[in-house]
Sequence to fold (162 residues):
Amino acid sequence: MEAIKIRTIKREDNIALARLIREVLVEMGVPKVGTAYEDKALDMMYETYDQSGRSYFVVEEKGKIIGGAGIAPLENGDSNICELQKMYFLPVARGKGVGYKMINICLGYAKDNGYTKCYLETMPYMEAARKLYKKVGFEELGKPIGDTGHYSCQAWMIKDLD
Fold:
């Protein structure tokens, strides 16, 4: 995998990112209702993350976006808890350490912005993703926290940012 570049989102990334995220969600068999698929934010990712305490990072290869991940405050949660959001990669980016690198960039951003915990929601059958989350120190929760609106996501995890 040559010339991988990780950078913060730009306004002109909106269309490509929305398409990529929806494509990966469909590929993974994720329900279109009660998940990120129907989030209004998908069509305006730059504007969503261009705010204090939020950031979204994209992965590019040869000028093409092949993945991304972001950090934002947990909706209706404690102010010290952020959420790892919209972390999706095209097949070309998988299995090459990109996800691990992206999580660490996101968690570094979270720590630098004063968050003490990071929460995420995923699907129980996304075993490769859950294995990666556990590798970086996320622990399973028995129920969701905050109110993300993603009621179809049935696996919840949290990590202390020490």
Summary: The chain has a mean pLDDT of 92. The two ends are 32 Å apart (CA to CA). Residues 98-112 form the longest helix (15 residues). Helices lie at 14-27, 45-49, 98-112, 127-135.
